[in-house]
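BUG: 3D viewer hangs when loading the predicted structure for this chain

Environment: internal workstation, default settings.
Expected: structure renders.
Actual: progress bar stalls at 90%.

Input used:
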Amino acid sequence: MRFPETALTVTVLLMLLPGVALGANQASCTFTTFSAPAGYSFAQINGISDDGTVVGQLEDKSSGVFVAFARGANGQFTLYSASGSDYTWFNRRNVPGVNVGSYLDSRVPSHVHGFAQSASGMVEVNYPKATNTWLYGINAAGVVVGNYSKGITTKGFKLDGGKYTLIRYPAAQATSPQAINDNGLVVGSYFDGTIYHGFIWRNGSFTAVDAANARFGTVLTDVNKAETIVGNRLAADHAFGFIYKNGAFANIVYAGAKNATAGGINSSGVISGQIYFSATNMLGYTAVCK
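Structure tokens produced before the viewer hung:
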């Protein structure tokens, strides 16, 4: 799993806002697993739309190139690479079928650009005067969230109707919004210089979310309209998926696997993610959990 980008300096603000840190139980999940297409391995599995389409990244086993993918509920993969790029990522897909993600261009020096892609084409998104821009989330209305870097500074943003709103956790070195639901609730993570913390951003106010036994931090990856959140707690060499709802955590566990990560959740509560048996043996999954 690849975690949000970090900056190297601290943005000093007046106060840190209160957060929550609770224990976790194991969720009861029914899994449906799937494999990567021939010649590819899963780099990361991210969102799942309401029609069951899963999006993420594949790595070409021969070249190491990353391509974005969308896997329909019928199991068919569609691959996408931005023009002139060796690295393209899909992070989320909304109800109308718009995928958002990022790509690394082939210039020297190279830069990351956000984009929205659908059947009608691709629209590039670059935060004004930023060095790099990443898009992570989109809701049904087409409001997107992501982050950008200027030099060594990384901050989050919301883009709605051409207007940018800054999302920056107080005193964080980096803020990375990962998803926005149809009610405008944003989830993501921030880096305090030592570890990652999850956050919920509602009407301009933050709440920190920290999973128990997360030695290297907590990352919130998606939220649906019912405000059920999925994310991952970070251990030494693995990330472990969880569901967070009404102040309680439930771990996502696949029997016989080293760990399972959580990438996305749709309005029906179906979760997408990745199961790891070893560094070279992994599966994608969708799951319904209680």
